[in-house]
Amino acid sequence: MNKFMERIANFASATDSWLPKDFKNWLMENGYFNAPASTKYHGNYEGGLFDHSYEVAGCLVEMTTKLDLQWQRKESPWIVGLFHDLCKIDEYVKVVDEEGQVMMGTGEVKGEESHFEHAADVLLKGHGDKSIMLLSQFMTLTEEEILCIRYHMGAYNRDDWDGYDRAIRKYETVLWTHTADMYASKVLGL
User: Is the dihedral of CA 110, 116, 117, 122 positive or negative?
Assistant: First the structure.
């Protein structure tokens, strides 16, 4: 089984019982399983967005069991983990030369080569907020899921430190979402 088909199978096994079919189709049509997670940091390769998101979801599921986390709905660790970076689905484009050949650059994670740059024509901007906007087209999110996705960057989102603090006080899962994201990106490099 190739890597793309493996991603689809993993996704299906985690989501088939609760994810709307129109959303699955939209994800396929918009390259969710092929997009990178960044241009030069974690997941800077084709499929890196899904690999990173799937790892974050797996971390959240494991933390939920080990720490006895209480979510507003049982699918929340999967929803938050898989879609916290949905904003990146259209953020990057392949770098090609005049002949249409993919140009390679130096990635900073595990010696991988990055061949992506930021897309210039992205309509929606933002990170957590954009992910919420995109996801909200297909499913109704709980307040907890919204706050977990909105503040998954934790201290890296310096513009709203007070909001992040209030969100953690209301839902401890906000802190664990950030922790899962950091584990997947900084420790695993995904």
Answer: negative
Return the structure tokens found at 112: 């991988």
> Cα separation of 23 and 165, whole Å?
32
Q: What's the confidence (pLDDT) of residue 106?
A: 43
pLDDT at position 113: 53
Contact yes or no for 70/93 (Cβ under 8 A): no
Tell me what percent of the chain is helix, strand and coil, each rounded to the nearest 5: 55, 5, 40
The residues, ordered by sequence, that sit 6+ positions from 14 with a Cβ below 8 Å of its Cβ are 54, 57, 78, 82
pLDDT for 100:
52
Show the beta-strand stretches assigned E in 69-155. 92-94, 105-106, 113-114, 116-118
Residues in the chain: 190
Distances (CA, A) of 55 to 16, 22, 89, 184: 18, 24, 17, 6
Tell me which amino acid residue 13 is: S
Integer Cα distance of 148 and 128 in angstroms: 9
pLDDT per 10-residue tile (average), the chain, 190 residues: 90 95 95 90 89 97 97 97 94 66 45 64 75 96 97 83 94 97 89
